[in-house]
Design a protein that fits this description.
- By secondary structure, the chain is mainly beta.
- The protein contains 1 helix and 7 strands, in the order E-E-E-E-E-E-E-H.
- It has one domain: Pleckstrin-homology domain (PH domain)/Phosphotyrosine-binding domain (PTB) (PH-domain like, Roll), CATH 2.30.29.
- A hairpin with a 6-residue loop joins strand 3 and strand 4.
């Protein structure tokens, strides 16, 4: 990911990434109302050997714009993962106990599987 490259620390390497995920309500809500576009944020995710990096994406083009923030990889864990049929759900617990819900489209299924495998699969109840 060309946007992430300049932000990497010396010796840090991107292991896996997801080109685009969405926050907000389930994308199926778009069928009911187009107004959910105001609740949705688009992100790219890069997992390095040290950090989880969130990259802002453009709402119009979907292109990666800029690194927004990063979190040490050791402080991130997967709470829930529903593998995408069309849309899937990835819920991450980040450092401060905040849960981040991300919607993943099926075209990014293999990338999401890689992120879950790298961060550790969620515990099964």
């Amino acid at each position: 990911m060309e946007v992430v490259g300049p932000q990497l620390e010396p010796g840090e390497q991107v292991v896996v990434g997801i080109g685009q995920v969405q926050t907000g309500p389930t994308p199926w809500m778009f069928i009911l109302t187009y107004l959910i576009i105001f609740w949705i944020k688009y992100w790219g995710i890069a997992v390095t050997d040290r950090r989880l990096i969130f990259v802002r994406c453009s709402k119009l083009t979907g292109g990666l714009r800029e690194v927004d923030h990063s979190i040490p990889r050791a402080s991130v864990r997967v709470i829930e993962y529903k593998r995408p049929g069309v849309w899937g759900k990835l819920v991450l617990d980040i450092a401060d106990g905040e849960a981040v819900r991300l919607n993943v489209h099926r075209i990014h299924r293999d990338d999401a599987d890689g992120v879950v495998q790298l961060l550790g699969a969620p515990a099964v109840a």
